[in-house]
Structure formats: C-alpha cells, structure tokens
C-alpha cells in the first residue's frame, strides 16, 4: 500500500498527490498523444469522437455534477457552438479566433438562459431545458439565411497556423487539435475545482441555505456555472460539426441531450474522470454492439438482423443498473477496485458503505 | 452601540405570528443565549438575522449596518456566521473543502485568475489553508481533514459545522442548538469551545439551546421566549427563576 506523507500545504493544492500519480497521468497523456501512430484511421476517428464527447461531458459535468443543476438542453448549446463556429468561419474569421468565439457566444447565451432558469429546481429545470432542446430545431429552421435551415451546412477543412486540418484528409492533425482542447479544458476544470469558485459550485449543489450563509451568492454562482458549462459545450459542438462534416436542424436533437446526461451519470457524477469514462462508454458502445451482433448472429446461424432501438435499449439498461448498484458511476467503481488492490488483502466490503448515497443534486420542492 | 440590535421585529406566516414585536441587543464580547419551548420562534430569529425571512415590521442592525438592506449572501460579508439546527454541511465534499467554503467571503481572485490558477490564486489558497488549519487545531479535527462528510458520525458533523462557521472569521457566531444530539462528553467539549471562542478569539456568540446546563455554564445573558414574544431577559439565574418562564415550561400552579 502506498501512503503519501504530507509535509506541505502545496501537496493538497497541487492537482496531483505525488510524483507517482503525476507520472501515471503523463504516461497516459503520452500514450494518447502517440495514438495516431498506433491506431488505424477508423479507430483514430472513433477516439477523436470519444474526446469530443468527453469535452461535452466536462461541460455538462460542471453544471450537473458539480453545481447540481440537471440540464436536458445541452444539445441546444452543442448546436449553438457548432453553428456559430461555422458561420464565423464562413464570414472569413480565422479558426484561431472563430473557435474560441463560438464557445464564448454559446457561454453568453447559456448565462442568459440561466437567468429565468434560476428560479427552477430539479425536475422543473429539466423540463425547462428540455424545451430549449426542442426549440433549437425550430430556431435553426427559422434562421435559415444564416443557418441553412433544413438543408443544413457543410464544413470542409480549416486552416490553423498554415496547416490544413481536415477530419478526412488529415485525421492525425484533427485528432491532435481535439486532444489539445481536451487537455486545456481538463486543466481549466481542475483549476476551477481547487479554487473558491469551484467550491462554491459544490456548496450550491449540496446545500443552498448554508452556501448562502457562507456568503455565496446563489444566483450569481448558478449563472457563472451555466455560462462556463455552455462555453465548453459550445466548443464540443464546434468539433462535432467538424467531425460530422455536414449537419442540419436535426443533428442536435433531444436524443443527444439525453445521451449526454446519461453519459455523465454512467461515468460518475461529480468527477472529471466521470466525463471521460462516460465518453468511452458512449463512444465505443455502438461499435461494441455491432461486433457483438455479428458474433451472436454467427452463433445462432441467423443473419445479422437490424434491431431498431437496440442501442438505446441496452444503454438504458446500463443506466438503470448503474443507478441501482453504483450511483457514483464507473469512477466510483474504479475507486473501489483501486482501493482493493492498494489495500490487498485488507479490503472490506463495508469500506464504501456509507458513501453509497445519491448525490443530492436538487431537492424536489 | 451594540453589536446586534433587534428592534420591534415581527414576522407572520399567514395567520401565525412567529415572532411578535421582539426587541433585544447583543453586546460585543458576550455569550447570549435564547431559550424557550419548541415553536417559540428561536430558530426563526436566527433565520431573520440570516435574511432567509423578511420581517413584517421592525429593524435589524449589525455593527452599524442595516441588515435588511442586504441579500442573504451579504450577511456573511459583514461578519455573521451560523450553524444550523439540522446540520447543513456539504455532504459530498471533504471536511477540508467544507471549511474552505467558509473562507469564501474573503475571496479576492476572480474567475480568470482561478481558471489559470495564477500565483495570486495560489497565494490565496495557501492563506485560506493556514486560517482553516488554525480552526482545525482549535477544534481537534485533524483526524477528519480528508474525510467525506457523508461518512462522518453525527457528533463530528456538529463540530465541523462550528468549524466551518469559525473559518469565515466572524464577529458574531450564531449557534443553533450546538449541543442537540451530543453525548455528555461532547456537550462538555462544546461548552469549553464556546467559552474559548469568546475568550481567545474574541467572537461574540448568540446561541439557541435547550440544554440548561450548557446555557447557564457559558452564557452571560439569556433571553427566554414563548410564542414568538419575549418572556424574560437577564442572567441565567434570573431567567431560570422568573415566574413567567417557569409557567411557560411547567404550566400554571393550580
């Protein structure tokens, strides 16, 4: 078992516990960075997709996992990010400006949406944001001159520092671009969580009354959380547009919102790791299912029949299983497995017993 | 001028008068206790000071500021900290994180310096940590520093709540039933702590408490309430022997 002796306050303020943990994360980063040389083009594309979902997951995690505000409207913000990125690029704004701006615009829209949403709690907030998700379809159709309406928009490669970055032409460069943004967002998120603002998010999630008594302005904190969350989601949306190449009013449907929320619940609410674990599940589940279907088909001699809704059915079952047996998600399970090996053979089943409580995101009132 | 002045405060919930034309002052450096039967409006007075309720009539002034002009989150900025009757901690955070939230009113950094974690944000974190460590030493919470609240026993949570309130570096500490649900030993500890909070830290304490042993042991003055109104105000001995107080607790002698 590894025991970290603390001799300095900086050991708690630094994001890593000790050199061992830091080196593990650096090795992971190096492996992920080297992925284009290891994986073939198909799996590199899949990995890019996972990273894009992880960015979106981190965006929603700030709001739902850390501030405790359930949102079913994040597909709308993905759309806002995607469209503002493309519209800015078409207007001749270079990518280095258009991409950050797309996030900022989405963030501002998110903060504006937050103002009426602040008075809503729990399920009512979920319904409000769900309406956002549905409305965005109509907004895109109505603003046809800019958004292209039903016929949609296309995005080819972009230019960054003289390099042509294209999902199909130069998948390696696109992958590294997404990876860079993922790392930057994750670092910002880590910094947020170790500073007063991040703690005030957690305070608002766990107890609004005592947060207020400690001097945390609830309305302001929620608005900032919405803004930050939507900004990051906007960036993920911009990447999703570039990844898909073509999109229209139906690309960012309610289903995407629900998938995103399910993803962070399965990954583990209230942790950055959860966003990544969830993204891996949602990114690879369709591939895994189609491979599994082939095997099952071969086993029973049947042809590979397409079963409509199979993916969502299985996804739903996984979600229910997690809520019943592991409310802290994959990350919670991972912590237990790690503790098991660290303490081997002294791990006891009861060690996490008290911690198996649901995150009190919002009391229904 | 008194530290806290409550002047003719009335609060009504529909037809029920929860606080009825109540006036009292808390002087700097004293321990002031509010006692009374259940439903007397003691906690309501706390919630009025915390600005969770707007009074129907009357004035609340703290340290020369009109408290009725600020938002609930602004009360802490003047130096009022509180605990809750039913513990309101941040359950899915560690003890250390809970106490650091208490430092929120001293936040000098903004969103950008925090996301970039600039040297000034780092300095502020170190400063906050030092202050919080002082409180941890004072209340003997060293063993629980990195524990999640969700896994802590009741008695420890009660102390963590006091610690969180002390971390804000307050002038006035509101303790809502600090000894409820505590064992005899824990109550004795609490009694010494309250005494030390006043003597060593120079913090004025206003508390609601049912345990008369604790009340008469630490408080300088006691206010007895019943049905939202003042029954008696004076030293613990005076209030305990006051005929109106005995009647409120035990009923009239027939």
Concise account of the structure shown:
Chain A: Its main location: membrane. Chain A: This is Branched-chain amino acid ABC transporter permease. The complex is a heterodimer of chains A (about 375) and B (about 250). Chain A is an all-alpha fold and about 375 residues long.
CATH third-tier fold name of the largest domain in chain A: ABC transporter involved in vitamin B12 uptake, BtuC
Strands ordered across the widest β-sheet of chain B = 6-7-8-3-9-10
* Order of SSEs of chain B: EEEHEEHEHHHHEHEHEEHH
Tally of strands of chain B: 10
Taking the alpha carbons of the first and last residues of chain A, their distance comes to: 45 Å
Number of helices, counting only DSSP H or I runs of 4 residues or more of chain B: 10
Tell me the distance between the termini of chain B: 44 Å
What is the class of the largest domain in chain A in the CATH system?
A: Mainly Alpha
> What is the count of distinct domains of chain B?
2
Number of domains of chain A: 2
Specify Rg of chain A, calculated over alpha carbons.
21 Å
Mean pLDDT of chain A: 84
Portion of residues in beta strands of chain B equals 15-25%
Characterize the largest beta sheet of chain B: strand count, sense, and whether it forms a barrel: 6 strands, mixed
SSE ordering of chain A: HHHHHHHHEEEHHHHEHHHH
Which regions of chain B contain 5 or more consecutive residues with pLDDT less than 50? Answer: none
Assigned CATH superfamily of the largest domain in chain B: P-loop containing nucleotide triphosphate hydrolases
Helix proportion of residues of chain A, in percent? 55-70%
Query: Which whole number gives the mean pLDDT of chain B?
Result: 90
Please count the beta strands of chain A (DSSP E, at least 2 residues each). 4
Helical residues, percent of chain B: 25-40%
């Amino acid at each position: 078992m590894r025991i970290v002796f603390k001799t300095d306050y900086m050991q708690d303020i630094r994001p890593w516990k000790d050199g061992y943990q830091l080196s593990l994360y650096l090795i992971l980063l190096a492996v992920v960075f080297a992925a284009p040389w290891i994986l073939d083009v198909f799996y590199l594309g899949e990995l890019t997709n996972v990273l894009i979902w992880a960015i979106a997951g981190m965006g929603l995690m700030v709001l739902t996992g850390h501030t405790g505000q359930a949102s079913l409207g994040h597909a709308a913000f993905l759309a806002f990010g995607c469209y503002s990125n493309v519209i800015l690029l078409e207007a001749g704004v270079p990518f280095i400006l258009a991409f950050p701006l797309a996030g900022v615009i989405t963030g501002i829209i998110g903060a504006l949406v937050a103002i009426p949403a602040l008075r809503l709690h729990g399920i009512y907030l979920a319904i409000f944001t769900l309406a956002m998700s549905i409305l965005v379809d109509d907004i895109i159709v109505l603003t046809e001159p800019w958004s292209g309406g039903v016929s949609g928009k296309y995005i080819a490669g972009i230019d960054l520092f003289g390099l042509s970055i294209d999902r199909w032409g130069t998948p390696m460069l696109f992958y590294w671009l997404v990876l860079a943004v993922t790392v930057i967002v994750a670092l910002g998120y880590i910094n947020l969580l170790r500073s007063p603002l991040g703690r005030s998010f957690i305070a608002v999630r766990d107890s609004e009354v005592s947060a207020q008594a400690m001097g945390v302005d609830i309305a302001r904190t929620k608005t900032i959380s919405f803004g930050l969350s939507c900004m990051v989601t906007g960036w993920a949306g911009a990447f999703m547009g570039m990844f898909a190449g073509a999109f229209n009013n139906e690309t960012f449907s309610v289903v995407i919102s629900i998938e995103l929320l399910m993803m962070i619940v399965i990954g583990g609410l209230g942790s950055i790791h959860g966003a990544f674990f969830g993204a891996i599940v949602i990114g690879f589940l369709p591939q895994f299912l189609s491979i599994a279907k082939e095997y099952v088909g071969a086993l029973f001699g049947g042809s590979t029949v397409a079963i409509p809704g199979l993916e969502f059915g299985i996804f739903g079952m996984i979600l229910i299983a997690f809520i019943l047996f592991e409310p802290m998600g994959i990350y919670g399970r991972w912590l237990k497995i790690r503790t098991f090996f660290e303490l081997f053979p002294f791990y006891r089943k009861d060690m996490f017993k008290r911690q198996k409580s649901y995150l009190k995101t919002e009391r229904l009132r | 001028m008194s530290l806290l002045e409550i002047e003719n405060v009335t609060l009504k919930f529909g037809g029920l008068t929860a606080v009825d034309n109540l006036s009292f002052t808390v002087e700097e450096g004293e321990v002031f206790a509010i006692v009374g039967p259940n439903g007397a409006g003691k906690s309501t007075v706390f919630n009025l000071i915390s600005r969770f309720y707007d009074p129907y009539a009357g004035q609340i002034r703290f340290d020369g500021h009109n408290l009725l002009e600020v938002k609930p989150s602004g009360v802490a900025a003047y130096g009022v900290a509180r605990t809750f009757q039913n513990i309101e901690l941040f359950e899915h955070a560690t003890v250390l994180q809970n106490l650091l939230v208490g430092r929120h009113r001293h936040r000098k950094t903004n969103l950008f310096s925090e996301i970039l974690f600039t040297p000034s944000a780092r300095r502020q974190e170190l400063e906050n940590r030092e202050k919080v460590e002082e409180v941890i030493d004072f209340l003997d919470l060293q063993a629980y520093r990195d524990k999640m609240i969700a896994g802590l026993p009741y008695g420890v949570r009660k102390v963590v709540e006091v610690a969180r309130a002390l971390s804000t570096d307050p002038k006035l500490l509101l303790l809502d039933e600090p000894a409820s649900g505590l064992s005899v030993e824990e109550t004795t500890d609490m009694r010494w702590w309250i005494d030390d909070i006043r003597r060593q830290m120079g913090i004025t304490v206003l508390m609601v408490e049912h345990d008369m042993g604790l009340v008469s042991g630490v408080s300088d003055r006691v206010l007895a309430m019943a049905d939202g109104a003042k029954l008696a105000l004076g030293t613990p001995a005076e209030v305990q022997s006051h005929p109106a107080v005995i009647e409120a607790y035990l009923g009239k002698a027939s």
